[in-house]
Amino acid sequence: MLLTKKQESLIKSLYTRHGRKKNNLCICEGKRCVADLLMSKPELVKFTVIAELNQNSSPDNVINPFIVSDRKFSELSATVASQGILAVVERPELISADIEPVDPFILVLDRLADPGNFGSILRTARAIGLTEVWYTTGSVDPFNDKVIRAAMASQFVVGMRCFANLKELSCELRRFGYDKIFRTDPHQGESCFASEELFSHSAIIIGNEADGVASLDGSVDILIPMSGSAESLNAAQAATVILFEYIRRRSPGL
Amino acid sequence: MLLTKKQESLIKSLYTRHGRKKNNLCICEGKRCVADLLMSKPELVKFTVIAELNQNSSPDNVINPFIVSDRKFSELSATVASQGILAVVERPELISADIEPVDPFILVLDRLADPGNFGSILRTARAIGLTEVWYTTGSVDPFNDKVIRAAMASQFVVGMRCFANLKELSCELRRFGYDKIFRTDPHQGESCFASEELFSHSAIIIGNEADGVASLDGSVDILIPMSGSAESLNAAQAATVILFEYIRRRSPGL
Helix A235-250 crosses helix B235-250 at what angle (to 10 degrees)? Predict the structure, then answer.
């Protein structure tokens, strides 16, 4: 099938926050990312665009494929070394406020700005089996194409809730009985390896790359111990240390 | 001082691998990154370029500053939302083969291709106190500007050794007595949380984002346990889990 001019403009618009909001769609690009999405949530895929040279190596179960010239693909793609496949995907809704969370603890991202960080945290949250992640306004749009690539399309599997700020978010946490709230801090607090209540109906907040977590009444600081000279960890690495401390504690025979 | 045309061309050439090699220099961009470098290795900084609008917020100890118009700075910068400061920096030499490593274990990156991954692993290695990281040819250039930004300039503090492939690298590991070699694998091996010899004069290899670690005779597979539906972790997250397992085991009171 031929891609219409209207579809081309639609794709280009989805690289902007405004375009994604208006059309309620987003872009998932790259072989593994699209293949993962076709496996986990095929019903969300509206159509797929494939570069001519790549059409033989595209997944079998691809949905509504449009083949375009390699030159046209480069024009529609956001990556420099494109893998010749992208999908236009329905943006899933946020989790409705009346649904009770089932996860043992809630991972919270407070104004996380970097697309790579937000994405790799979603991918890691999925890898440890969390079903949702909460975030505050001021974070990068989770359906930004870079976030989707970094997350390997995990935002279509892991649900999300968004709040104006930590105060509103923490009211909601408490309403659902997640009443121990931990702020990660690079300089102070109890060690994440020692804290006994870290994962028992709690919430753990990862903060903005430059400013950290906003202050929050009634929260407890948690520290990731380090031994080197670096001032602090990258936000996604901090989240990873904490998420895998959960897995470690649950591992059999330890 | 005025930036000469020659200096401008020099800066532009440092965004290519060839230009960095020819001039033995590289680019460190961004406020925190330059500030960190000025603190840790000021002797490596050749000169600094600052955008007019940012000159009042630049670090006090800046070296050989050239002030340029904001428009000129955008032209010289590789970032979209630049922070108005970059430094031209001498590229440190690789660690000489006759120097014996002092670290308890060696972290190895095998053909790690993504600049963000390579950089955040260097930053994390530094945070846990490693003094060097080894890598194989086929990896991204550690002095690529994106790697430097992701590493927060840690490549000027953490030393590096580079080898043609894992076979050559493992000979060198054994020569120094690092004789237990672990390959991280997403699907098989002993749990990194259970393996007792993981950090005792060993080496731990993190592999290429798409292909994993190359096969290597005499190595042992190590697995990061997961519980969710994701196929595997991002390489930088895998490295982080393992590096902080080392810190956790050394933490007092555990």
Answer: 60
